[in-house]
Amino acid sequence: LPELPEVETIKRTLEIKLAGRTIREVVVLFPGIIGGPSPEEFAAGLADAPVLALRRRGKFLLVELAGGKTLVIHFRMTGRLVYHAVNTAPAEHTRVIFELTGGGQLHFVDTRKFGRLWLLADPSTLSSLARLGREPLEEEFTREFLRLGLRRRGTKIKSLLLDQTFIAGLGNIYADEALHLAGLHPEKPARDLSPGEVGRLHRAIRRVLEEGIEHHGTTLRDYLDGTGTKGRHQDYLRVHSRAGLPCPVCGTRIVRARVGGRSTHFCPCCQKDYEHGE
DNA sequence: AGTCGCCTGGTA
DNA sequence: TACCAGGCGACT
User: Fold this and answer.
1) Is A2 a catalytic residue?
2) How far is CA A237 from CA A23, A65, A148, A180, A277, in A?
3) A40 tagged catalytic
4) A30 CA from B8 C1′ (Å)
5) How far apart are the C-alpha atoms of A175 and A169, rounded to whole Å?
6) Which residues make beta-bridge pairs with A54?
7) Å: A112 CA to C1 C1'
8) Which residue lies nearest B4, CA-to-C1' measured?
9) A159: closest CA among A258, A53, A26?
10) Among A67, A129, A176, A203, which residue's CB has the most CB atoms within a 10 Å radius?
């Protein structure tokens, strides 16, 4: 669920609460959620750790701690990290509790238990983090970078957008949205995009992510920010999760299909520039 | 490149 | 009851 805009929103809402704070004690309620080291070492290593800064990389949240270690969090499908100013009874599916000095708690809640937390001296030893591609909102993500990445790739453009080693942070929602804004069929082979289409896609990726951040993320079901607040971008989605509803551009019914194993929503009129089977 | 497994809950 | 879900890694 949390894609780039959601993790960015979690980061922004939590850094206000965590600035200058120290983690006093950590209680791991479900050890399987800890990616490493052992749950015991994870908890012990976080005790009395001052928080220096929060960062986001792709869909990862990184909490940098005094002493050089980093708490790395991936929310996967249903993970959330919510701050409580006063001690609060853990909600159902709470997996880890971080107690802060001076009062307040962070609860990591994850219904499906797909999320992972790591405590690492060197985050680059986590291969899924080290192998991430470019940050789409940073300057280094240029039209030329996108052009070179698509060149000679026969894979469907939607699948490539979801490849975290190429672009870090797009998930199923924002990939669908970017392709609609760019007017591209999700199954169009990457190498078949014209220079003009690459330019449109480049702008569309940036725009949908920026809009998502502006609206504090998309809450289709589970996502909440660091203060427990829903996002608003679900009210602005063009195609994603809107099968059967009219396209906001032309009114044609949005179609839902399966592309690269993922549920995919698109407008057959605005995004028909690739004819399946040709 | 496609499928499965990991988990739980919501909806048809 | 069956199928679906915003992710991702392992496997074929």
Assistant:
1) yes
2) 37, 37, 29, 10, 29
3) no
4) 15
5) 10
6) A63
7) 21
8) A261
9) A258
10) A176
State yes or no: pLDDT of A222 exceeds 50: yes
What's the CA gap between A277 and A144, in Å, rounded?
29
Work out whether the CA dihedral A52, A55, A59, A60 comes out positive or negative.
negative
pLDDT at A160 over 90: yes
- Chain centroid to CA A167: 12
Chain C footprint positions (protein CB, under 7 Å): 4-9
Q: Gap from A48 CA to C4 C1', in Å? A: 43
Q: What does pLDDT average to over chain A?
A: 95
Q: Looking at the whole model, is its pTM more than 0.90?
A: yes
SS (H, E, C) chain A: CCCHHHHHHHHHHHHHHHCCCEEEEEEECCHHHEEECCHHHHHHHHCCEEEEEEEEECCEEEEEECCCCEEEEECCCCEEEEEECCCCCCCCCEEEEEEECCCCEEEEEECCCCCEEEEECCHHHCHHHHCCCECCCCCCCCHHHHHHHHCCCCCEHHHHHCCCCCECCCCHHHHHHHHHHHCCCCCCEHHHCCHHHHHHHHHHHHHHHHHHHHCCCCCCCCCCCCCCCCCCHHHHCCCCCCCCCECCCCCCECEEEEECCEEEEECCCCCCCCCCCC
Q: Residue A241 and residue A68: Cα distance in Å, rounded?
A: 42
Catalytic residue among A207, A262, A268, A272: A262
Q: Which of A181, A156, A138 is nearest to A262 (CA)?
A: A156
| pLDDT tens per residue across span A90-114 | 999 999 999 999 999 999 999 999 9
A269 CA from C8 C1′ (Å): 32
Is A186 in the active site?
no
